[in-house]
Model the fold of this input.
Amino acid sequence: MRRSAAPLLLLLLTATLLALPQILPRFHTYVAAIVLLTALLATSLNLAIGYTGLYQFGHAVFYGVGAYGTALMLTRSGMPAPIAFLVGPLAAAALSLVMGVICIRLSKLYFGMLQISLGSLVWAVVYRWYSFTGGDDGIHGIPIPDAIASPKGSYYYTLIVTALCVFAMYRIVRSPFGKAIQGIRDNPVRAAAIGVDVKLHQLASLVIAGFFGGVAGSLFVVVENSVFPDMMFWTFSLEVLIMCLLGGMYTFFGPFVGASVIVLLRVFASIHTRYWSLILGTILTLVIIFLPDGVLGMFVRRPRPKESTGA
Amino acid sequence: MLRVESVVKSFGGFKAVDGANLHVNAGEIVAVIGPNGAGKTTLFHLLTGHLSPDSGRILFKGKEIGGLSPHVVCRRGITRSFQVANIFPRLSVFENVQIAVLSRERKTFRIFSPAKGMAEEEVHRILRSVGLFDQRDVGSDLLSHGDKKVLEIAVALSGNPELLILDEPTAGMAPEETERCIRLIRKLSGESGLTILFCEHDISLVFEIANRIMVMVRGATVAQGSGEEVRRNSEVRSAYLGESGEC
Amino acid sequence: MDFAANLFSAGTLSQILVGLSRTTILFIVSSGMSLILGVLRIPNVAHGSLYMIGAFAAWSVIQYLGGGLPAFLAAMIVAPLIVAAVGFVLERGFFSYLYEREHLMLLLLTFAFMLILGDLVKIVWGPEYRSVTVPAFFQGSAEIFGLPLPWYNLFLLLVGPCIAVFLWLVINRTNLGKIARAAAVDGEMVGAVGINTGWIFAFTFVLGSFLAGLGGALIAPMVNISLGMDHTLIMETFLIVIIGGLGNMWGALLGSLIFGLTQSLGILVWPQFGIAFPYLAVVAVLVVRPRGLLSSTW
Done:
């Protein structure tokens, strides 16, 4: 039943996403683009935390570096735009590799904290280096190629890139590599004992997650035309983590759903109230207490043993 | 096939393994026995690279393997099970075995080709041979305790080892599960000529299936030989069989 | 050469002393976090919010009592007690049901509390800056080696060691402390011998919260009390606890010293990127000693 419904659902979703800018007003089209790129960001984080089991607490840094890399290339290098859109994510992947090499020896919470620490280091540099990154003001009025500069253009660009990246990650988690990292998440000792080089796989997963996080950052530049240091502050990293948790960390599309819910809530709540954090905190508390597997996690049915042996 | 020569491993001031010697010939079933805390599990961890020895030699097929990483040891041809069933709980039974097969085939860095259906035949064959074929789509954390331990053996087998190390394969099993597990071990040894090294608390079981037995007390090897030889050894009697005879 | 000149100038010593007094605050707050981490194993992100509440509560108490030294001293006691009460509610109301959850979940739950408490502070105290003036008693400066050091900083330098001794006594010389330490190692065992671990945990959390509140109250005269003062502090506290060794009280002290000194000296040496120095120090420590400087209870 569910299997046959999936392609239909996907078709419907694609049609809706393609039609959105035609029906929605300008501001809502912009919001939809932010939803998409944040969903991409959350999905990329989930590759590290949900699929590899690494406490990636500083993911926003890769998002930020992807964005700053793209922005700086566009404003300062005079190179063609496509190169800028590639350099941002590649810089994020490279940073991810460097940070990964340093952090990977540590387990769980230590890994997460060292990552936050390194991330804060990057943030502090970006925040203060006025002559290069614009410091706490960020960079504004970034020139975007005409074809994707309009709200509709940037939306479609975001949609296409997000779709491609999500599809690529979907392939990755279903590949042998994807299985191996899930094995590592579940039980690194067991994984090593069957010949899997745990650290190498973890590192590869971090680099992939960092790269796609960087892509999300480059999309942010297109949609927002500006970058600022807050987008790589640690609180935002944890917010993206909440998106994964809300949607379901052990499902592929969970983070996508979680990100959509949170971004939309934030946009519409902030119109009506100044107390967005209160709402987000309350949602998070309820999810942790009542829905630890997330919204999509509720729908996952795992086949049970046929006969109860021994019991 | 495997030679362990006066291996020592200490934690802080405590010598967990203190002069262990062991040799295992191809095709044998060898058991390591000893009272609680004798260092059996530590010894196994040393053999499979989960710990590295302070001194002594561990030779596998003539080459030193002491201190290598676990995944390297595995590629040399030794796989193992752990005392507490050690599986991938969020994955299905099929996936548990599949990862091991893909790892052996060095395919775990393929990132775009779907894993579904890869190595299916071999995984099915392995699952059939251990009797878990019908449960292949079940989430492995939902299996019974005995089935989990059997699954772990299946995972270890998927690495096509030359030497299989089992750390208390029947611990915590119900009697009929134990029976099944013994049959499995015998079958593995008999059919495919697999060399097996295991440790076990159940002494009668050890004497039943092992070709040779090594006895460890306080980290050191005190005797090694056939069941009959070990039974006659006076040191073993006093140090070990005497104690457990009372229980 | 400029750097060297800055480093060996006459101001360096007073800068170090000012840095040390800031270290006192860091130590008080992070010892509270370390306690909670060591015994309850909760990486409490809301700890910074408790600190912020401490500062705001101190402001309110001083406003209510109308200033002066007695009001100030009263605030230093009442504000932490208010924060301790908040901690009590959090522990009994939420955490006590969730100790079995994995650390990631606990961490995110405390992040949720940080968000909630942040907005509650905004509702109670409003979004404006608040400031507390140093009571007349502490105004002016002492002369140390011919350099001026504000009396209040000197006061903080004395408070720090007092707190350290107090904590040492609580942990090592009281039954409560001994049980808490045992519970940190093996909660089940302590429970099995008939001790109610629930109340030990509650006590630890309340004490940890009290320390956070005290840190907030003590820093109130030195900074603008504002929303968001929790964000930077909590990260610093976490890193201090991590480099010191999770759950180790002396580690918290050592970590605070490293953090506070690299911070004040960093700004002296290279004003623009001074804020990056403590993070560099943390990275350096963790690269050399991945589990922190002193032994961890984890």
